[in-house]
Design brief:
alpha+beta; 7-stranded mixed sheet; 15 strands; phosphopantetheine binding; Condensation_dom
């Protein structure tokens, strides 16, 4: 855990809020899914925490910033919500009023890393789901003037896209433009809708999709126990590539598809070469902000959409991209569901095959999620191959426990595109993790200039003998 740097001083400011709405309700589908994942990941459940930062114009003083924080605490019910009954089926419990202690941290004028240090310190500690507010906030000051806002979120309260609307609301509060904001949807009301007859009809349609799709997929993308695992078992790598910031938008523009489709197709193609599965099953995180009641909600709506990539007979990357686009649309259509229904479908298919069926392979595209996200862009007019020397491959903090075997995250980085991979080294050794990231980059850079044969991508290398 990151500690305070030398000379940094912290004091606590109490922000009192009165949001008026209160009461208990069932968990939403998104909350129930995250709560299940938390239970499978403890004590490493800090893995699900995430942070957002906001650079502050130097024209606002500390009372104005604290007033903006009070505004969003009162406006967004999820920030005032804790769990009750965590020993069984928990409920979400929103408090009308309370107090949040906000850190105020004075940092050196030239310190550009202070926000990252605070974010790491906040995110590295799990939340107390019954007793702690689900957000940690710090105001970084330079010369006594607020310069940066750092917020760490419990994933039960929000997802990355939803916190984009929270950043928007903070900016509006600072500028005195809150009268134009639409009413904030409430997670407790969404939970009640999901339990209604209309909600159940949609849930049943989603369950039927999962039942059809699960009949098509391999038992798992990665067999368990194939390698001797490292210690800690779950290793994490990050590839930061300026070349991909140029190549991916160019390929997407040439093929008239989204950059998400291009990245998903590349990951799927390399996975196919690695695993030998012509049907690639990936659990892609779906934002689920389509209906008016969910469009701007600050809550956790993200769920795993089952995307089944039919790559049998596919020889070129452009064909893989087209197949991925069709499969992703089908998966995302039913990416909003009651996890209890999915569990029932998975249990039934596992019983039919006589062994547990689960992809254990997920992907999350965080690039540009929500409002105010910084988009990584490469230099214009430069061929991506000329930027490959600038690629960095970093080792991140490992995990003792995780409920998946292969987790991929796409994200923005300054002038680059980031791909983070967390994997069970009993299924994918650390050298093979690095090879996967490099192969994905190589495929996308090659696709910049036209069609690319998929032959050879993702195959086992000498660095990871069985």
């Amino acid at each position: 855990m990151t500690e305070l740097a030398a000379g940094e001083q912290v004091r606590l400011e109490k922000v009192e809020f009165d949001g008026q709405s209160s009461g208990t309700a069932p968990l939403t589908w998104g909350q129930r899914a995250i709560w299940s994942a938390i239970g499978r990941t403890r004590p490493g459940d800090w893995y699900f925490n995430f942070c957002r930062t906001l650079m502050l114009p130097r024209r606002y003083d500390l009372p104005q910033v604290l007033a903006a924080i009070r505004f969003v605490l009162e406006r967004h019910e999820s920030l005032r919500t804790r769990l009750t009954g965590t020993d069984g089926e928990p409920l979400q419990s929103a408090a009308a009023a309370g107090v949040l202690e906000v850190e105020v941290l004075e940092v050196a004028a030239g310190d550009r890393e202070a926000g990252a240090r605070v974010a790491e310190r906040f995110a590295a500690r799990g939340f107390d789901y019954e007793r702690e507010w689900p957000v940690r906030i710090a105001v970084l000051t330079k010369g006594g003037v607020p310069a940066e806002l750092v917020m760490a979120f419990c994933h039960l309260a929000a997802d990355y896209e939803g916190t984009g609307y929270l950043l928007r609301d903070i900016r509006a509060a600072l500028a005195g433009r809150t009268a134009d904001l639409p009413p904030a949807p409430r997670p407790s009301e969404l939970a009640l809708h999901q339990e209604s007859a209309e909600g159940r009809r949609f849930a049943e349609a989603a369950a039927a999709h999962w039942e059809r799709a699960y009949r098509l997929i391999p038992v798992s993308m990665f067999p368990a126990g194939e390698y001797v695992p490292a210690e800690p078992r779950y290793q994490r790598l990050e590839l930061i590539s300026p070349a991909l910031a140029v190549a991916v938008p160019a390929v997407a523009g040439r093929l008239a598809v989204s950059t998400s489709t291009v990245l998903l197709a590349a990951a799927g193609a390399v996975l196919r070469g690695r695993t030998g599965h012509d049907t690639v099953a990936m659990l892609a995180i779906s934002g689920n902000r389509v209906a008016p009641r969910t469009r701007e909600i600050v809550s956790t709506l993200s769920l795993e959409a089952l995307v089944v990539l039919p790559f049998e007979g596919v020889t070129g990357f452009e064909e893989a991209v087209r197949a991925t686009g069709r499969a992703a649309m089908a998966g995302y259509r039913f990416g909003h569901y009651d996890e209890r229904d999915r569990d029932r479908v998975v249990a039934a298919e596992s019983a039919r095959r006589g062994e547990p069926v689960h992809p254990y392979c997920c992907v999350n595209d965080l690039r540009g999620a929500g409002q105010g996200a910084a988009v990584g862009r490469g230099p214009a007019g430069v061929h991506p191959a000329a930027l490959l020397d600038g690629t960095r491959l970093l080792e991140l903090s490992p995990l003792e426990q995780l409920s998946c075997r292969f987790c991929l995250h796409f994200d923005d980085a300054p002038g680059a595109l980031s791909i983070r991979l967390t994997a069970d080294t009993g299924c994918l050794p650390l050298p093979a993790m690095a090879r996967f990231l490099r192969e994905t980059e190589r495929l996308l850079v090659a696709a910049h200039d036209g069609e690319v044969s998929l032959a050879g991508f993702g195959v086992h290398g000498p660095e990871d003998p069985r």
